[in-house]
Amino acid sequence: MLFGYARVSTQDQNLNLQLDDLKKAGCEKIFQEKVSSAKVRPQLQKLLEILRENDTVIVWKLDRLGRSLKELFTLVNDFQTKGIGFRSLNDAIDTTTAQGRLVFNLFASLAEFERDLIRERTKAGLAAAKARGRIGGRPKGLSAEAQVKARAVKSIHTLKTHTIPEIGQLFNLSRATVYRYLAWQRKNNS
């Protein structure tokens, strides 16, 4: 069965152009929604739930289906694994043909190559920073201001005149932070 999927990002946009082309392509059922790709897309979820082997999903353009290249390739790879075809009317991709699978796999390879390049550049940048003595990540331990508070928390806690929640209220700290400060004090014997 041929299923169409049409989507626009806002309520004031029109689906007519996509719907007309999907009908011309022979779609027997068209799922349509007016929602940003960054949000939950209930119609897409319904479509994914009813797809069976030998079905084909047709979209007007690739960006109507996936919000990112990674998501798009994940969806289409899932389709291929389940024996479901995919066609994009305006991007000349049709995974029901050998040429379409080749084009799609070339796109997927290029996207993976780009991700690998980014990963390599990131690693090289971190290594260069480390060679210059810069280490990434959150600084270890407590800031000078937090150390002063930790000592005060320890002092009041030692007096046993206040409970942990009361100490937290006094210093405007969460209960977990009070315990963290006390543990820091024990570790550093200050």
From TrEMBL:
<dbReference type="InterPro" id="IPR006119">
    <property type="entry name" value="Resolv_N"/>
</dbReference>
<dbReference type="GO" id="GO:0003677">
    <property type="term" value="F:DNA binding"/>
</dbReference>
<keyword id="KW-0230">DNA invertase</keyword>
<dbReference type="InterPro" id="IPR006118">
    <property type="entry name" value="Recombinase_CS"/>
</dbReference>
<dbReference type="GO" id="GO:0000150">
    <property type="term" value="F:DNA strand exchange activity"/>
</dbReference>
<dbReference type="Pfam" id="PF00239">
    <property type="entry name" value="Resolvase"/>
</dbReference>
<dbReference type="InterPro" id="IPR050639">
    <property type="entry name" value="SSR_resolvase"/>
</dbReference>
<feature type="active site" description="O-(5'-phospho-DNA)-serine intermediate">
    <location>
        <position position="9"/>
    </location>
</feature>
<dbReference type="GO" id="GO:0015074">
    <property type="term" value="P:DNA integration"/>
</dbReference>
<comment type="similarity">
    <text>Belongs to the site-specific recombinase resolvase family.</text>
</comment>
<protein>
    <submittedName>
        <fullName>Recombinase family protein</fullName>
    </submittedName>
</protein>
<keyword id="KW-0233">DNA recombination</keyword>
<keyword id="KW-0229">DNA integration</keyword>
<feature type="domain" description="Resolvase/invertase-type recombinase catalytic">
    <location>
        <begin position="1"/>
        <end position="133"/>
    </location>
</feature>
<dbReference type="InterPro" id="IPR036162">
    <property type="entry name" value="Resolvase-like_N_sf"/>
</dbReference>
<keyword id="KW-0238">DNA-binding</keyword>
